[in-house]
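Try this one yourself first.
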């Protein structure tokens, strides 16, 4: 499976991401970097799609990033690995 298979298509709030056993992550469309975010840095009532507007990639400084809600692998129970 690819990373895209773990990205949820809905647009939850930051609080809802945690309540539904998902994690908040950033995916850079420019360099492909994928990292998990500390959700406590963001207000719980903000939508995941709104976070993308305020984030930049730490590796390449691109603003072409997307905040996403990630689910565990249903078979293994592991989270997808981060990549640089």
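Now uncover the answer:
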């Amino acid at each position: 499976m690819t990373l895209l298979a773990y990205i949820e298509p809905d647009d939850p709030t930051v609080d809802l991401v945690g309540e539904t056993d998902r994690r908040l992550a950033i995916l850079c469309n420019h360099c492909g970097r994928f990292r998990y975010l500390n959700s406590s840095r963001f207000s719980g009532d903000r939508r995941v799609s709104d976070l993308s507007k305020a984030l930049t990639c730490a590796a390449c400084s691109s603003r072409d990033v997307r905040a996403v809600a990630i689910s565990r692998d249903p078979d293994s129970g592991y989270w997808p690995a981060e990549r640089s």
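Discussion: The mean pLDDT is 92. The chain has two helices and three strands.
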